[in-house]
Amino acid sequence: MATGIKDKVVILGMGCSKFGERWDCNAQDLMVEAFEEALTDAGIERRQIDAAWLGTAIEEQHLGKSAVPLAMTLRLPYIPVTRVENYCATGTEALRGAVYAVASGAADIALALGVEKLKDTGYGGLPQRGRGALNDLFWPNLSAPGSFAQLAAAYRAKHGADKTDLKRAMAHISVKSHDNGSKNPKAHLRNKITEDDVLRAPMIAEPLGLYDCCGVSDGSACAIVTTPDIARGLGKRDLVAVKALQVAVSNGEEVQFDQWDGSYFATTRIAAARAYKEAGITRPREQVSLVDVHDCFSVTELVTMEDLQLSPEGTAIRDVLDGFYDAGGPVPCQIDGGLKCFGHPIGASGLRMVYEMYLQLQGRAGQRQLGSPTWGVTHNLGGFPSQNVAAISVIGAYGA
Amino acid sequence: MSTSDFGILACGAYLPRSRLQRPVVYAANAWFAPGLKGLAKGERAIANWDEDSITMGVEAARDCLGARDRAGVARLVLASSSLPFDDRLNAGVVANALMLPSNLRALDFAGSQRAGSSALIDALDGGAAPTLVVAADARKAKAGSTQELHYGDGAAAVLVGSGAPIATLLAAHSETVDFVHQYRMHDRAHDYTWEERWIRDEGYLKIVPRAIDTVLKKAGVEAGAVAHFCLPGTLARIQAAVAKRCGLPDASVRDALASVCGDTGVAHPLLLLGAALEAAKPGELILLAAFGEGCDALLLRATDAVATAPRPAAGVAGALARRREDGNYLRWLSFNGVLELERGMRAEPDKPTPLTVLYRNRDMIQGLIGGKCRACGTVQYPRQRYCVNPECNALDSQDDYPFAERSGSVMSYTADSLTYSPDPPTWFGMVQFDGGGRMLLDFTEVEAGSIDVGLPMRMVFRIKDQDPLRGFQRYFWKATPA
């Protein structure tokens, strides 16, 4: 019987590069930026790292295949290094590799680093790419915003939601994230916006306008993990532990079986339920202190609030408009700006979310620091509403 | 010669929904070609960017076949002067889209505006094999040319065989004369034409009457007995002039549909025949003539069944009625490669089609075949080895399940302005099929504001992607408002 990983692994150190249009950087430079911070934070030397995981999604745009670019860039001394990719949930997958390695006892100290260098395409938005030899013959030529925009139509149909109310709630989500992002020196977008700005923005994929879409960014984030005992041995106090790490992957039921209605993420619901169980959370709406979700698009964040059991089904619009997820609300969401404003360098995003939880739990989040959070939940999603990867982590004080 | 149970069993038609308004074309070109003013009336059917002779032919064939068992079709002819492939059996794509059996004799007929009428003669006069004759054209024309205004895009299909025909052939005759009134060599995009007065006097008024006189004589029928006279042609009043020359009754001259869809080239004789059969009463005689390096003439008699046989879902009348006025001349020029737009970097990614993958999955892709699980009854697409039903997951348990003729409704949708499309935005969404199964599909022929969850949709065969690097294009099915 699996016992889960609660409190088996703690974070020894983390780092995160400045996200944004890093015209001055190669992917390798971003990796060094995140790694240097993490290594200093951990207070170890690179030769103490037993194993490493590299998370990067669109490798043809920057690093190329394999884990070799991580080993070469960081000069890792012939240790096992693995490259993982799982759509936009790649960053959390890299962390999962490192955490499982430590939890299993196979490694004392493990590294997870995610990176993406997206701004070398010559155009805005994500790089275009093939989706597999057979898929290309029948999948629509959809963009990421187009894919997620469909949630809005299905959500409206299911809950009888008014088009204007939904659009206003989506606008509130983006305004809130820009407010939060403005306080984060590492965020890609630090400007504040108004609801009017969102509503008047050019349409990207109906009903998603420009401000309903997250930034496309360059960046890297890094975690070094170990056991609680080793961390204490290295002089660490106030340990931040991984309470749960869960991934659920679509098996075709949403897109091929007739039960899913298109208004939510089946994977998120399953992964969240498993993660809460692993962490011992029974009343998420009351217990979760803060959440960083995969707000690739405003509507994704909206439906995810229900999928994470934070808002009862059909009430996310009301909660959002009531400020439930604002910085001063009961469950602040995207306190670091989220994908929307911190930015979305794909392979780094899952680790960036955990980075914010780590800072918040240690009281090191600067201007955006919340009171005294106990449970932080990250939600990292990749793919399309109809077939995707959902990765959830719960981060909290060790032993709490 | 024909027996009473052998003849035309059904007709079908397809016209693209967009009708380019000729006054708009004239207005754009008047500065350069003021002589077009006389043609600046009415509208013509124009193919969407994702349509060509293959896709329009498929739609006309579906209209013609209706719910009939397709396994009985032994021969398929695709006639066109605008076949997308010079080497690749274009009719083979049509056959796959229609899921006709592989023991099929399929031919492309091309090279003349008579390709459709000659194929029909061949089917009616060339043995008793059940033959589906499909004719389609989407001819290109230069901006500011008379052809741009005269031509229309469209397709027609005629099913010939034994059973209860709606019309039988009394006689057919062909004249072949190398009278070159227009031509196009294989490396050219546009037709080159000669003076209209010569085409009229030496062509239509001499060669066509010779063919008509001969076919009437072969059948032993007086010209005055013809009830429906069909003759494609864009010269002014040419149908009436030929009728008069041949002694055909004035009232028999059928409208050549110039003002409502334009001349659909190789498809047009069959389209006019379809229209005549939709109007014909039992026993009436139909004379169809088609001009082009000679002339084909067919004399047919409508049977009693013409009044009772099931009508095509659309037919010519339905195809003409399903229309949308289009005043966007620049878009039309862009679709035809006459206007080079800046398509942006998002149009650059390579779109190769691995032919091995296409071949292995040809029924899934070109035939839209999914699966139905024998163990649990779940309908699904694509058909994978394991059933998708989580309570079942049976291995290799599915029978072929064709989706193309199934209706469905919108479950989710969007209009994507970011992804590249020749006609943005790209509409797509999830379609839930009546009777089970669902797919994430491109939508086509969508107007802004017309789509919402629950809207009924049907499937149409279209161009999926173009591969300019290798000169290929691939086909798939899209959903369109029903």
Can you walk through the features of this model?
The complex is a heterodimer of chains A (400) and B (482). In chain A, 37% of the residues lie in helices and 18% in strands. Chain A has 15 helices and 11 strands. Chain A has 2 domains: 10-120 and 218-233, Thiolase/Chalcone synthase (Peroxisomal Thiolase, Chain A, domain 1); 143-211 and 243-397, Peroxisomal Thiolase, Chain A, domain 1, CATH 3.40.47.10. Chain A is globular. Chain A has helices spanning 27-42, 68-74, 90-104, 135-138, 144-159, 163-181, 195-200, 228-233, 253-256, 266-279, 284-287, 298-307, 316-322, 338-341, 346-362; strands at residues 10-16, 51-55, 81-84, 109-116, 203-205, 208-209, 219-226, 240-249, 290-292, 375-384, 387-397. In chain A, the strands form 3 sheets. Chain A has a 5-stranded mixed β-sheet, with helices on both faces. In chain A, strands 8-11-10-9 form a 4-stranded mixed β-sheet, sandwiched between helices. Chain A is of the alpha/beta class. In chain A, a hairpin with a 2-residue loop joins strand 5 and strand 6 (208-209). The two termini of chain A are 23 Å apart. With 482 residues, chain B is of the alpha+beta class. Chain B folds into 3 domains: 6-335, Thiolase/Chalcone synthase (Peroxisomal Thiolase, Chain A, domain 1); 345-368 and 403-481, OB fold (Dihydrolipoamide Acetyltransferase, E2P), CATH 2.40.50; 369-402. In chain B, 52% of the residues are buried. Classes of the chains: A alpha/beta (400), B alpha+beta (482). At the A-B interface, helix 4, helix 5, strand 5 and helix 9 of A face strand 16, strand 18, strand 19 and strand 20 of B.
